[in-house]
Amino acid sequence: MTLIHNPEVWQEKIAALPLERYDTGETVFAEGTKTGRLMILKSGTVGIYKGDVAFAQVADAGAVFGELSALLDAPHSADVRALEPSEFHVADAETLLQDPVALLYVTIVLARRIDAANHGLLQLKIMLESGESRGLIDKTLDGIEGLLSAVGSGFIRAGAGVSGYPFA
Questions:
Q1: pLDDT tens sequence across 104-161
Q2: N or C, which end of the chain has less CB nearby within 10 Å?
Q3: Cα–Cα distance between 50 and 32 in angstroms, integer?
């Protein structure tokens, strides 16, 4: 079975959503809170933080934030903060995820994150077996952690990744 994602239909759906703007330093999502919202990055750059540790930066238009919290009915697992003025399409997660087009889009986003993490794990195994430096191994581990624990950190296009990941 081939799933077909129609980008034009998705763009029409998100274009109809209200927009919110966040200035540099403002928190979009706070770790431990439940907002019930999905945020789709229209423009700008955000950082993903676990405590005081930054582990990802996302600047890709279309990046989805809040999907793990919504799908798992759990609090947000990290802070998302604007690193520059950023604008988001905002949706009620429960409502939007009832739409098959939105659900397919989020599914594809999550599948690409898992695929990128799998590639990172394979690269990590190769690095360990070849005796790579601890610094490079740590950087790769940080990238994998960011992919797996980020608050929806990402719309990862085929062949692209979240900036800063050595395996992206």
A1: 999 988 888 888 888 888 888 888 888 888 888 888 777 777 666 554 433 333 333 3
A2: N
A3: 11
d(CA 100, CA 36): 18
DSSP per-residue string spanning 57-97 = EE--TT-EESHHHHHHT---SSEEEESS-EEEEEEEHHHHT
Q: What tokens were used for 70?
A: 């919504």
pTM for this structure? Answer: 0.77
Q: Which CATH superfamily is domain 7-149 in?
A: Jelly Rolls (2.60.120.10)
What six digits make up the tokens of 43?
């423009």
If we measure between CA atoms, which residue out of 110, 84, 87 comes closest to residue 97?
A: 110
